[in-house]
Every structure is written in structure tokens, then in C-alpha cells.
Write a structure and sequence with these properties.
Blueprint: E1 2-15, E2 20-27, E3 31-38, H1 43-51, E4 57-64, E5 71-80, H2 89-105, H3 113-128, H4 137-149, E6 163-165, E7 170-172, E8 181-182, H5 184-193, H6 208-223, H7 234-238
Antiparallel strand pairs: 1-2, 1-4, 2-3, 4-5, 6-7, 6-8
Helix pairs in contact: 3-4, 4-6
């Protein structure tokens, strides 16, 4: 039996049996991990499940048992306690989207300290933002995430009138034969979007309809790299915010 102290970000919990739930999470030390979590109704079990809500940031002891792919957890404690995200409808919708997105793209992810730090910082920034400034947060999150996953386009190639090839992830002067591309206007918007960060996202003035179009375009691009994203349910909730 091996034990290791790790930091993790909870992503998704699935009922496995009457006795256990499966927690999918991303950790700084081990990358993508899965824990067997007791389904009891004791005070300790309830406390642990509260810590492991989507995007909960936790330090714990991971216990690896011989012959099992599932880790066991002990000595769990919160690294960051959300003060606002659980109670603000817009922030909650964004948080659920982030967790669902990450549960797909990091399903078998190796350890990556920079990626872990980005997600951790994103959770903290979202929680602390004034509610009126979160509208573009999920777009800035996806732009930053694409860069850390190594699928970000080279925005410096863009010139007015070019189109964005979704399949190859680059800007081109003419439309590709495969037909998966953004038109000139959408490509110009995509090139501008590449400069979006948490610091400047508030200067991007989108109507709800425009924001949803941008989200759909980004997801179309991500889906070419991660087919599991086609089953996401949370974007529909985001579109109403």
C-alpha cells in the first residue's frame, strides 16, 4: 500500500454502488486520478462530499491499494473555500461548465503543474469577481486552457480577410476543401478573442447572442481534438446566462 500527499481539483462524482461514489479529479502530483469515496451518511462522509463538490480544491492523502485502479482518500482538507460561486447563478453555471469541460479534456491527463495552477487560479478568480463582470469568463477560460493543452492557434498569422481552418487550427487565405472553417468575419473575431485574458475580458462587448456564437465556435474547435465534448450538457445552461 502506497501513500502520497497530493493537491487536487474535484471535477465529477459518479455513483458506483450503494457503498461508494467515484470521484474524478485532476491533481498536481499525479495528473488525472479517480478515488473511491464512501457513500455513508456520517458527519465525516458528508463533510468530505461537501469538500469534493465540482471545482473543490483539496489537499489529501492518496492511498494506492495493490490490484486496484481506484485510490482511497484520507485526511482531506480544503485549500480554498468558495465564498460566492455556489450562491451566484451565473458563477455556478460557469463553474459547472468548467468542471464538465475539464472532466473530458483531462480524462487521462498526466501531471502538469502549470495546467493545475491555471485551473486553481481560474476558480479563485471566478469566485472573487463581482457578479457583473463574469459574463465573458468562460470564454477567457477556454482561450487560456487551449494554450496550456497545446492546441491554441498561432494568432500572429492572422491578416484581415483570412479564414480560420478549424481542422488544422491555423489561419488561411482560402477556404479548405474539408469545409470546417470560420468565415472572414468569424475569423476576425477569433483572432481578437486570442488576446482575451481575465484582466481584459471586460472590454469585449458582446450581446448574449454574440457571446453564444463565440462559445459555439470555440467548442467546435475543441471538439475536433476531444470528441467527448459533443456530449456536454452545461453549455446549454450557460447560453441562458
Amino acid at each position: 500500500m502506497m501513500k502520497q500527499v497530493i493537491q487536487l481539483i474535484a471535477l465529477r462524482t459518479i455513483k458506483h454502488s450503494d457503498r461508494h461514489w467515484i470521484l474524478r479529479a485532476y491533481s498536481r502530483e499525479l495528473g488525472s486520478v479517480a478515488f473511491a469515496i464512501g457513500a455513508g451518511k456520517t458527519a465525516e462522509a458528508n463533510r468530505r462530499r461537501a469538500l469534493l463538490m465540482p471545482l473543490g480544491i483539496v489537499e489529501c492523502v492518496a492511498v494506492k491499494r495493490p490490484g486496484s485502479d481506484l485510490l482511497m482518500m484520507s485526511d482531506a482538507r480544503s485549500i480554498f473555500q468558495s465564498m460566492d460561486m455556489r450562491f451566484d447563478p451565473a458563477k455556478n453555471a460557469i463553474g459547472l461548465f468548467m468542471a464538465e469541460m475539464l472532466s473530458v479534456v483531462l480524462r487521462e491527463g498526466p501531471p502538469d503543474a502549470a495546467l493545475f495552477d491555471f485551473v486553481q487560479q481560474s476558480v479563485m478568480v471566478l469566485d472573487a469577481l463581482p457578479g457583473r463582470r463574469v459574463a465573458n469568463f468562460h470564454l477567457a477560460f477556454l482561450v487560456g486552457l487551449a494554450g496550456l493543452l497545446g492546441i491554441s492557434p498561432d494568432y500572429t498569422d492572422y491578416r484581415p480577410g483570412m479564414i480560420f481552418d478549424l481542422f488544422d487550427g491555423r489561419f488561411r487565405v482560402s477556404a479548405p476543401i474539408h469545409g470546417r472553417y470560420l468565415g472572414p468575419d468569424e475569423s476576425a473575431a477569433a483572432a481578437r478573442l486570442g488576446r482575451m485574458t481575465y484582466r481584459n475580458m471586460h472590454i469585449y462587448r458582446y450581446t448574449r447572442a454574440m457571446r453564444n456564437e463565440v462559445l459555439d465556435s470555440i467548442l467546435r474547435y475543441f471538439e475536433l481534438h476531444y470528441t467527448g465534448l459533443r456530449e456536454l450538457k452545461s453549455p446549454e445552461v450557460l447560453r441562458q446566462c
